[in-house]
User: Fold these one by one.
Assistant:
Number 1:
Amino acid sequence: MSSSLNHCIKFELDIKDKNVVFKDYFYKSIKLQKHKIYEAELIQPACPYCGSLALLHNGHLVTNIRYLTANASLPVIIRLAKQRVKCRDCERWSMAQSELVNKYCSISNASKL
């Protein structure tokens, strides 16, 4: 997808994290209710332990995040694929993290507020 789509979705959802990259969106019926689903990837540019850029990518952990929306009749879910990486310098494993959602959580921080 284009970077303009990514920018438009970030503007619509008021997401400022530069490591979240939106790829697509679609509508899906879940439990007889229409939901808007956004697909995104959370990238990790550097090792959080040593700051190295030499990372070995090892797949993604996909999390469905419920997100705050002005229209309660159309819930929003962000299907976020978090990168898992191993640092080639310090040999430690890590997963990409964002201010959008806490680690191992499926409710956005905006919704919690």
Note: The two ends are 31 Å apart (CA to CA).
Number 2:
Amino acid sequence: MSAHTGRLLLSPQDPFLLPERAPLTATLSEAGLLGTPLEGRNQAFAVGERFLQLVIFAGCSVRIELSPIGEAPFCHIRFTGPFRQPVFLSGRNTRPPRCRSCRGRLRSWREALSGRDNAGVQITCPACSEASPPWGYDWKGQAGFGRLFIRVEEVFPGEATPTPALMGLLEGSSGCKWQHFYIQDD
């Protein structure tokens, strides 16, 4: 099996919000982001006919598989959640976040977040002593928090960007602002 290329994740900016999945699925299907449900893959969809208009790929030699070929990785969309409380998603590409007050790095982020319920956590910046929830730090699009995620699988971090049209669809369907970030599995 080949190494995980990475994924683009979309989630509400407020990690406590939990939009209803059914209206999101209907909106994204109608807009052409989601194709048919993938058999044997829970909450996963093939990419739709307008996927490449709603997610922009940049780079000189972008290569993505849009349909399954045997067991090889391919680009598809999966919903993850709902979760009772905000969960933290990170990967091998995640770097120490920066404090939004002083821009100091939180080098001990793994220890600060390990084995905790993130709902009430406050992390004190070692540089300026400002206490913030973990989602209050600047993760530079390399990690995120939420109760529901839309995952665009098998895209290299930073290679795919949701268009303003896609972000508008998500906001219109859910009534809340959305964010995006990228992770790669270990």
Note: The mean pLDDT is 89.
Number 3:
Amino acid sequence: MSHRQPVRVPERNQYAALIDARSPGEFALDHIPGAINCPVLSDAERAEIGTIYKQVSPFEAKRLGAAYVAANLARHLRETFADKPANWKPLV
């Protein structure tokens, strides 16, 4: 397993886009200027997962959260990024 070094600010220009995968509410509170929001969880999904984590079990929350993340990533790939060329290089 390789370990990547964090990207430094001057290196950001090596990427075609900066993608913030946090929920819309988190993105609205603060984000790097120029970043686009492609959330892996909606605000409602994030709240639901948090409730399940506390009230049911961390395992059940992770299971449902993973399903939401997979579905949301698939939607972003189908809709938001479908027209990007093979050499498009975003920073997430």
Note: The CA atoms of residues 53 and 85 lie 39 Å apart.
